[in-house]
Amino acid sequence: MAFARISITLPEGLLTAVDRAAEGLNRPRSWVVAEALRAFLDRVPEADAAEALLARPLISEPAPDPYAPGEVDAARDRHLEAELRLTPAERLRRAEELGRLARERQHRGRRHQIIGFDTYEDYYEWKKARLVGV
Q1: CA 83 to each of CA 72, 74, 99: distance values in angstroms, whole numbers, following the listed order
Q2: How many domains is the chain built from?
């Protein structure tokens, strides 16, 4: 089925309502607009014009994957299949290696921070409080 791209201008309130409906139905905005046009054409008195348009098959869009776009989903599947080909011992060795690398990368040491003051007096009060331990 061939599709055509169009451009339309709508009042902001109507577009907001269309977007809310699309989000609620988990469908694209274009699907909601196409369904509204089909419903309108069902009521058009010029039956022959409406009939010609309605004789075409309905637009059918695949349901969106709730977890990820197709490419990410396919990559995840490939990664899982590759991991499942490993022996349990090899998977455990890799998990331990990743844990070791993560621990090595953790920042251990003195924390650096930048503190700003509006006046020297503010800095002086802060410094005195730190020295006293307040």
Answers
A1: 16, 14, 17
A2: 2
b or e along 74-94 (b: 16 or more beta carbons within 10 Å of the residue's beta carbon)? Answer: eeeeeeeeeeeeeeeeeeeee
Burial of 127 (0-12, 13-18, 19+ CB in 10 A): exposed
Residue 114 within any structural domain of the chain: no
pLDDT tens digits, one per residue of 5-46: 888 888 888 889 999 999 998 999 998 998 888 887 777 666
Residue located via tokens 């009939």: 51
Task: Extract the tokens encoding 93.
Answer: 């060795």
Which range marks the domain in which residue 81 is found?
A: 70-105
